[in-house]
Write a structure and sequence with these properties.
One of its GO terms (molecular function) is DNA-binding transcription factor activity, RNA polymerase II-specific. This protein is 67% helix and 2% strand. By secondary structure, it is mainly alpha-helical. The protein has a domain of 60 residues: Homeodomain-like (Arc Repressor Mutant, subunit A). It has a two-stranded antiparallel sheet. Strand 1 and strand 2 form a beta hairpin. Helix 1 runs parallel beside helix 4 and helix 5 crosses helix 6. The structure holds a DNA duplex (16 and 16 nucleotides).
DNA sequence: GATGTCAAAGGGGCAC
DNA sequence: GTGCCCCTTTGACATC
């Protein structure tokens, strides 16, 4: 069992390199065929060759390893087309570990493939072109979903931090009011506030008629908005 | 049996 | 019109 896993791992590593090669070809705008010949990495090759050379007891393993080279589908007693021709009912296809690993490796390099690449990959994996296409679509959807979850978590933390900050500022404001204005009833404070304005540059309270109320209020809003924005950016949330 | 996962199907939108 | 992608839904299978 361990031997099998070693072969599979080696196979995946080899594929990673070949995928990069394929992309290079694509960049040259001259894609004849995806070069996915499943050339094993040196370690994988070594193990396959060893397996082939050993005595009869290990001959079975050698056959398995050689089987991996062409990635034959375990259900491939029948043609791949038979996967979906079960009296009209959909038969769930479970991709083999090797197929999944290969697809994953390629996906890591390129999340989308052109038709030629898909066809080549489908042939190599003994799948239909459509299956490879669908797999990549589903894989992109899973990636997007995961990213959405991450983003959501991030925004949730942002929200929590801002709520905390809001609470803190409210408390601070209350304390300052208590210190400066004293235990005046709230409605009086509010009525005073309507007559006070705030200097747009120094943000200090001005006496009545010392500034334009409308402009001051909009400046306060703008300043608060900018402060909030800065705190988000600088705070790393 | 409820739930989760994932391959597959189908439809809409878009670019060519 | 065709081909591709995205999104949603469906259905088979696995896990608990």
């Amino acid at each position: 069992m361990e031997d099998d896993e070693a072969c599979i791992t080696s196979l995946s590593l080899g594929l990673g390199i070949m995928g990069g090669h394929a992309q290079k070809k694509e960049n040259e705008q001259k894609v004849h065929c995806l070069d996915l010949s499943f050339e094993l990495c040196p370690k994988g090759k070594e193990e396959v060759e060893e397996a082939i050379d050993v005595d009869q007891q290990q001959q079975q393993h050698a056959n398995k390893a050689k089987g991996l080279l062409c990635l034959k589908h375990p259900n491939d007693e029948t043609s791949p087309d038979s996967n979906n021709s079960n009296n009209g009912s959909r038969k769930k296809l479970k991709l083999t570990k090797e197929q999944s690993a290969t697809l994953e490796d390629i996906f890591k390099l390129h999340s989308t493939l052109n038709p030629a690449q898909k066809q080549a990959l489908a042939e190599q994996l003994n799948l239909k072109h459509r299956q490879v296409e669908v797999w990549f679509q589903n894989r992109r959807a899973r990636t997007k979903l995961k990213q959405t979850e991450v983003d959501c978590e991030f925004l949730k933390k942002c929200c929590e931090k801002l709520t905390d900050e809001n609470q803190r500022l409210k408390k601070e404001l209350q304390e300052l009011r208590a210190q400066k204005i004293g235990p005046t009833p709230l409605y009086i404070q509010l009525s005073k506030a309507t007559t006070l304005t705030i200097c747009s540059s120094c943000e200090k309270l001005l006496k009545p008629n010392e500034g334009n109320n409308k402009g001051a209020i909009s400046n306060v809003i703008r300043n608060s908005s900018n402060k909030l924005k800065n705190s988000i950016e600088l705070g790393g949330i």
